[in-house]
Design brief:
4-stranded antiparallel beta sheet; 48% strand
């Protein structure tokens, strides 16, 4: 069983930055593909960014390219999402997810384990 705990959400003004963290409680964290997803009120959950097991391959949604950066520290069993130049449309609950498929690149069905989510609110 994999448990994921997100942190770092909050309220920020447009143009500001936040860094989300997701700590995993699994011995073999380094073999999991990891992803960040978000869900805004009234909208479907969507992929934000994904990173493979080694950290060498990443993928971003078009809406966040150039503003968000996903990274991981396998020694700390943690994945991060650095969010810069935030916009009001980035407001959502952000979820961390883990896939036993180490090369998973953001296809939602590949992610078996999910965190509880952290709220990000960007004011205009």
């Amino acid at each position: 069983q994999v448990q994921l705990v997100e942190s770092g959400g909050g309220l920020v003004q447009a143009g500001g930055s936040l860094r989300l963290s997701c700590a995993a409680s699994v011995r073999t964290f380094g073999s999991y593909g990891m992803g960040w997803f978000r869900q805004a009120p009234g909208k479907e959950r969507e992929v934000v960014a994904a990173i493979n097991w080694s950290g060498f391959n990443t993928r971003y949604a078009d809406s966040v390219k150039g503003r968000f950066t996903i990274s991981r520290d396998n020694a700390k069993k943690t994945v991060y999402l650095q969010m810069n130049s935030l916009k009001p449309e980035d407001t959502a609950v952000y979820y961390c997810a883990a896939s036993p498929t180490g090369q998973a690149m953001g296809v939602m069905g590949e992610y078996q384990y999910w965190g509880q989510g952290t709220q990000v609110t960007v004011s205009s």
